[in-house]
Design brief:
Elements lengths: L18 H10 L2 H10 L1 H5 L17 H11 L2
Helix pairs in contact: 1-4
Amino acid sequence: MKIESKKSIYLDVATRWNSTYMMLDATDKFDVVFMRLEETDPKYLSYFEIDSNGKQKYLGPPALEDWKRLNLLSSS
């Protein structure tokens, strides 16, 4: 899989006003990687499963609609 971007994925930092934008802008270039992970790596999906107490650990992986919204945000 070839990714044309040289950017790294940033983590959101609460004390830096632009870190959320930088994180989303860089992540937008990796949409195919995240979709491929969902298809091929069971550990990736297990990160989002419901735990033994019946609580969902984390929100699910990005859906197609999420990627569309992100694309609109980063292209504006």
